[in-house]
DNA sequence: TCAAAAGTGTTAGATTTACACCCATGA
DNA sequence: TCATGGGTGTAAATCTAACACTTTTGA
């Protein structure tokens, strides 16, 4: 009984997944998701949470179950049933040191190599679920810094949805959502002119509550 | 490691679930979903399929995984992780004899009693997923006889969605879907005038392919 | 001065919703 | 003949999609 984590990040305008070389037999050296075993005294969710924290050092990561994967021959050694979870983190919040220690790296979801066992399937299913959830719940902000520009947000939705979005229509929809607040701060790293920084206000969201992108 | 099945049926204008009294300890006698254990040499899907067939005698039942349920204390005896599956069957196709033998009955989803362990959670999640899928994929027909009236179909969507639908708008949408074919047959069981019977043509659906209700 | 990203409204078309009456029949 | 469920169309409102130019500023 194990858990495997599909950890999504957003960087360089691309949706990425954290993958590494498998450290144990069978399949040592193959590209793989990061996972762990479920202890006798912990729930599946707890196991996933612990695994995520072990890898990233971060707590309270947004995480959802993808499902159970249980082909008989999915693990060439003994029989292992694995529960997949996807998680969303901000790439910049992840300690480079920890990342290197665990020998995992961010790979664009469009350029994923063949992964160990059924891990590619897990990624595809996780992506599908995450995409769906991102349309109707404000979870995308977990992939961004707490202050972000509208262009960044748009690029995120484009990367996840896999298609370009009209800038004016996108911004119109954002304006209707009061919980996406414009600050007076300006980010000048991506343009000479600079772009206003926005923030997601969860308190306001919980009052008025409706999200659709 | 077990599987639990949320078997949906549609009868008397209501969405129903097949539940029975639990036959083993712990929890003997409590209302419960029908389940079974996963054998060492079968996949999760195979285990669910076998369990469904064992209960209903039917093969090739439409079935989807709901997810893994793994609270440590979810089973008061030893630790059991369960994978829930939902399935759709036509109530009329289910042998009354088999049903009685297994001592399970159809209970309206709105009148479900408290079920064993976390089974109520499973049902709710299954319902949510099924509802979602029924909007965009033509799976609802599995809950109906192969010939059905438009009123039956509408009642089904109302029962699953939990709200009333405008008759004319509903029928307008049906007309746009060429794979829902009107036959020349008339059902006179529900009205004096009689209503045309329709059928879902999967072949046509696979050609033209788009469903939205 | 110019290249590059930020910012901003309008309009046509498509989709969705609301709504009320006649039809056919068996009892 | 009448009660019951079957069947049908239109118009307003809303939502969606397409589309192009001006602004700011650092190099």
Low-confidence stretches of chain A: none
Largest interface by Cβ-Cβ < 8 Å = A-B, 18 and 18 residues
Using the CA coordinates, give the radius of gyration of chain A: 18 Å
Report the strand count of chain A: 9
Oligomeric nature of the chains:
homodimer
Q: What percent of the residues of chain A sit in helical stretches (DSSP H or I)?
A: 25-40%
Q: Write down the overall mean pLDDT of chain A.
A: 97
**Tell me, what's the shape of chain A?**
elongated
Number of helices of chain A: 6
The SS-based structural class of chain A is alpha+beta
Instruction: Note the gap between the termini of chain A.
Output: 37 Å
- The percentage of residues in β strands of chain A lies in 25-35%
The ordered H/E elements of chain A are: EEEEHEEHEHHHEEH
Largest sheet of chain A: 7 strands, mixed
Topology:
The structure is a homodimer of 213-residue chains.
Chain A: E1 2-11, E2 14-21, E3 31-32, E4 34-37, H1 44-56, E5 62-69, E6 82-88, H2 96-101, E7 104-108, H3 119-136, H4 150-161, H5 167-176, E8 180-187, E9 195-200, H6 202-208
Parallel strand pairs in A: 1-6
Antiparallel strand pairs in A: 1-2, 1-4, 2-3, 2-7, 5-6, 8-9
Chain A binds a DNA duplex (27 and 27 nucleotides) through helix 5.
